[in-house]
Amino acid sequence: MVSVSHVLIVGQGLGGTLLGWQLEQAGIPFKVVQSYPRRTASLVSAGMVDPISGQRFALAHRAVDTISLARRWYEVLEAELNMPLISDYPIWRLFRHIQDYEYYQKKKGVLSAYIEQELTDVRPYLSSKYGGIVVNGFQINVSPIIRYFESKWTQSSTLIRGHCHRRDIRIHGQGIEWNGVEADLCIDCGGFESEKGYFDWLPYRLSRGDVLIGESDRLLPERVVNNGYWFRPMGAHSFQFGASYAWDSLTRIEAGHVHLLQDALTALWPYPYRIVRIDSGVRQMVADAKPVIGRHPDVASMGIMGGVGSKGTQWYPYLVNEWMNAIRYGLQPPDDCNVARFKGSKPFYNPQGIRP
Description:
The protein is an alpha+beta fold. The chain is about 25% helix and about 25% strand. It has helices at about 15-25, 65-80, 100-110, 140-155, 255-270, 310-330; strands spanning about 5-10, 30-35, 50, 50-55, 60, 85, 90-95, 115-120, 130-135, 140, 160, 170, 175-180, 180-185, 185-190, 205-215, 225, 230-235, 240, 275-285, 290-295, 300-305. It has an eight-stranded mixed β-sheet with strand order 8-9-7-17-18-19-16-20, sandwiched between helices. Strands 11-2-1-15-22-21 form a six-stranded mixed β-sheet. Strand 13 (about 175-180) and strand 14 (about 180-185) form a beta hairpin. Helix 1 (about 15-25) runs parallel beside helix 6 (about 310-330) and helix 2 crosses helix 6 (about 310-330). The longest helix is centred in the N-terminal third of the chain and has 19 residues, at about 65-80.
């Protein structure tokens, strides 16, 4: 059995939080470093767990593995936190145009196990003349999970508040050292900031997502709806709508993207509403749109977990479980998720002249 006496987690989004939770359950000492103000995409995500990925009604990669495990883990967290986290609202995916309907017809056989109903009429609440489908899935309220462990680990001095510059992480013997913290293993769960250090050779694709938080005097339907964006009720009259994809600007909200969101919202919800605020976060993906997990191919004391795009709520229980298998038993991550699949794509970041 492989023994890791101390793990440093960089980033306390949902991935870093779930990893810390599992290390805690296993009795493995760890520290978490989180920068403030937060820019984690986890806090603005819709928290959806569903089998469809992308705009062309494709079955999500490893849907069978990820969805069932996610359900079990979030049920355990509900009990531990003593608060509701899972919403089983019906999930409606609407066909925005005839092409969406045609995409669905091509994928219908693969998706059939996850489709509860086909919709021909979605009125009176929602405008779509092409119909849609009701998908078997659920939604997770992510923010309370992060906030609960943030408070708990602050009190126990497990959480370090400060920015971790990746280039300040030093190889120290068989482990690492950062800002006086020594660990056998550092796992970077910091999302888009992972590209600034030992994993700068990965083929990243970053996008900023803007989310509208709004209110409507009209009673909201008890369902989650997707018309290219997620429309999620947050009570009887409050809702979340988004997120957009901005590939060209990661640091500021562009008026054009907000207008596109508002146009899509008005098409979906053709009743008076008001926008309360706009939340933003940066998603991290890599070129093949699959997660990355595992130890650095040449620096074994550095690890990563990320690349989940907008599917973090669904992916992270599975990825954390794989990391725990690696830490406790020395197992390798699955090939399709292993960060080593990109080895050789670029020279790896080598701040100390380490010989591969």
